[in-house]
Design goal:
Phosphatidylinositol 4-phosphate 5-kinase; 723 residues; seven-stranded antiparallel sheet; MORN; repeat; transferase; globular; ATP-binding
Length: 723
């Protein structure tokens, strides 16, 4: 079957349009046996390109398709008048998008797998606004609520309405297809992807092939989720008693949908500097991407060149037969050098960047490291060089380095100084041996070392590392711990949700299972001995905390009608019920015997490493069970459960201070970072002594051995033996 034609099946389904090689291929109209109607592009029996589908329940989707799935930019209108305009992936809302409900509520932000996930702005029908973050559909993290009638809300409403109308016009003009009135487009795969990337850059390009002519039904799963969202409307905490207040804003922090902190701020009394800070936070709804940087910006070219170089290097080294590394693989000649002219050459493709020179250090060593860390070459290349591109991050320290994050968050790319490059190359043979012998090492995992030289420009060196915070769970707090007190604090006015805090900002002690703690400090000692042997100092423990909402507070997530019952019928005060009985909430974390078939097997930087054993389950390998969330494999530095004890000074008397402890269930993520600072007595003696609060005249105290001893002693206080 080739050319134009019409075909019908015994089930009652019909197709009229283009054929090619016995496939539905081109442009055509398909009427399903269930009454659904699709008009648009086809590719080998699958909806592909731009098309319009009306489902049997009267839902309508206009937009981009990819191999039978809604993929790219599109508009979905439910029969109950709810509407979503934005990005799609694998048939579900993913990326940047706007959802508007029948009652007038509107959400503008990021989505994942059909649920709000990431930063966004929720506008209530009465004019109130909430700017914050969501995780799997629940508020999670810090945010700001502006009540209805607030001047800030009025300005944001006007801006949001304009943006919403602009997006709607753009999508209607670009993606709507009607079988009677529209001009028949030349549907090609590249064209649909181009439309997708142009409208909303956050859309993904993952392929999900389907060869069946029976298309999935309407978004039953999403419409259920949306109806629940519209009914709840966060009325329990966002709207009570706030009507008409135009002078205050509420800074809030949530934990899996539960409000745990709130601070009232006066907007009218804010200084000009504070107002600018509020304005900045409001604009953070849109994430910054390197793709959005003007092409004349130097960092944009660095990002493009880095992708070109890694694609070339991985493609060149992967076909080489696997073998053990040799001493020559670490030497001066272990380099791949290539010139990338813009017009292309015999060995390199043409590109849209500027001419540059590429150098790849020790390619065979890093190829073996990637295999040792169970990282597939194709996954590595697509993660860094895929369509999603790289995102630039702000530097968390004073190094002045540029940081990039891969599109799937699995890898961090950091620029290095020349001195750091020399230290790394010198220690690379022993680093390779160390990570080979200790699969549970907490030291940063390195995947590649490269250098770019722009024509008539200076040299820029990059190292590719694993992102230890690439996890299914949201990281609520981050700490950089060195075991020092000099200057190790963060000013309160500079703290936001993404801030990496320091030693003096940490007010928690973490109690964990006995065997988990023993495994942690055994590996810490081995890693510190290695760094000590390489004369490395000034390294840190990067600690990430995921807090679980207290179980006795999760009643706040019940349906809205239960939120208005008398408090005496449902509340517990101080752990006592209304009848005076002691209420002990169940644990939010549960260790269970490890079952390989039950845990997530998604690839990530932590895929290598053994499953840990826990005393609480009889010295067996364990998984971490998070009720209603996930089941995760417990590894060293990954998915480690603990109890965080927070000291709270409640009252002061003439005799003593009364101390209380707030206890939280937390999941820990940790690793050793900044391992490229070499000890040098002549250059770093005074600075190091000052940071460690020692007498500079005592040379011995700044030796790496004493640094590691101080480092571990400090961590023993952070992770004390559980009573």
């Amino acid at each position: 079957m080739t050319g134009k034609g019409r075909i019908s099946w015994a089930s009652g389904a019909t197709y009229e349009g283009d054929f090619s090689g016995n496939y539905l291929h081109g442009f055509g109209t398909f009427t399903g046996s269930d009454g659904s109607l699709y008009t648009g592009g086809w590719r080998m029996n699958s909806q592909h390109g731009i098309g319009r589908k009306q489902y049997q329940n009267s839902d309508v989707y206009d937009g981009c398709w990819k191999e039978g799935k809604r993929e790219g930019s599109g508009r979905y209108a439910w029969s109950n008048s709810n509407m979503y305009i934005g990005s799609w992936k694998n048939g579900k809302m993913s990326g940047r998008g706007v959802m508007k409900w029948l009652n007038g509520d509107l959400f503008d932000g990021f989505w994942s797998n059909g649920r709000r996930h990431g930063t966004g702005c929720y506008r209530f029908a009465d004019g109130g606004y909430y700017f914050g973050t969501w995780t799997k559909g629940l508020k999670d993290g810090q945010g700001t609520f502006y009540p209805a009638g607030n001047k800030h809300s009025a300005r944001r409403k006007s801006s949001a309405d304009k943006n919403g109308e602009k997006k709607k016009r753009l999508l209607v003009h670009s993606s709507s297809v009607n079988s009677e009135n529209s001009v028949r487009p030349h549907v090609r795969r590249s064209h649909s992807e181009k439309i997708s990337n142009t409208l909303l850059r956050g859309s993904s390009q993952t392929s999900h092939r389907t060869s069946s002519l029976r298309e999935d039904s309407a978004l039953d799963d999403i419409s259920v989720d949306m109806s629940f969202d519209a009914s709840s409307r966060y009325s329990d905490d966002d709207q009570s008693g706030l009507q008409g207040d135009s002078s205050v804003a509420f800074e809030r922090e949530y934990m899996q949908g539960v409000l745990i902190k709130e601070r009232v701020r006066s907007i009218s009394g804010l200084s000009l500097k504070s107002k600018k800070r509020y304005k900045f936070h409001a604009k953070e709804v849109k994430s910054k991407s390197c793709v959005d940087i003007f092409e004349g910006h130097r960092r944009y070219y660095l990002m493009l060149n880095l992708q070109l170089g890694i694609r070339y290097t991985v493609g060149k080294i992967t076909p080489v037969p696997a073998r053990e590394v040799r001493s020559s693989d670490f030497g001066e000649r272990a380099r791949i050098r290539m010139y990338f002219p813009r017009k292309g050459s015999q060995f390199t493709p043409p590109h849209y960047s500027i001419d540059f020179y590429w150098k790849d250090y020790c390619p065979m060593v890093f190829r073996n490291l990637r295999e040792m860390f169970k990282l597939n070459a194709a996954e590595y290349m697509m993660s860094i060089c895929g369509d999603d591109g790289l995102r630039e991050l702000s530097s968390p320290g004073k190094s002045g380095s540029i940081f990039f994050l891969s599109g799937d968050d699995r890898f961090v790319i950091k620029t290095l100084k020349r001195s750091e490059l020399k230290v790394f190359l010198r220690m690379l043979p022993r680093y390779y041996r160390h990570v080979s012998q200790h699969e549970n090492t907490l030291i940063t995992k390195f995947f590649g070392l490269h250098r770019i030289k722009l024509k008539h420009g200076k040299k820029v060196r990059f190292v590719v590392m694993g992102n230890m915070f690439c996890t299914e769970l949201r990281i609520h707090r981050r700490y950089d711990l060195k075991g020092s007190s000099h200057g190790r604090f963060t000013k309160k006015d500079k703290i936001d949700e993404g801030t990496t805090l320091k030693d003096l900002d940490l007010t928690y002690e973490f109690h964990m299972d006995k065997l988990l703690r023993e495994s942690l400090f055994k590996q810490l000692s081995l890693d510190c001995e290695f760094l000590e042997s390489q004369q490395i100092i000034d390294y840190s423990l990067l600690l990430g905390l995921h807090f679980r909402a207290p179980e006795h507070l999760k009643a706040l997530l019940e349906p809205p009608d239960s939120l208005h019952k008398p408090a005496s019928a449902q509340a517990t005060l101080g752990g006592m019920t209304s009848q005076g009985e002691l209420s002990i909430p169940p644990r939010g974390l549960l260790l269970v015997t490890h079952e390989p078939s039950s845990v997530s097997t998604e690839p990530g930087p932590h895929i290598r490493g053994s499953t840990l054993r826990a005393m609480s389950v009889g010295d067996k390998e364990v998984d971490l069970l998070l009720p209603g969330t996930a089941r995760l494999r417990v590894q060293l530095g990954v998915n480690m459960p603990a109890q965080a004890n927070l000291k709270v000074l409640q009252d002061k008397t003439d005799l003593a201070e009364v101390e209380l402890f707030e206890v939280y269930d937390v999941v820990l993520y940790l690793g050793i970072i900044d391992i490229l600072q070499e000890y040098n007595v002549r250059k770093k003696l005074e600075h190091t002594c000052k940071s460690l609060q020692f007498d500079p005249m005592s040379i011995s105290v700044v030796e790496p051995k004493l640094y590691s001893r101080r480092f571990i002693n400090f961590l023993e206080k952070v992770f004390p033996v559980a009573p």
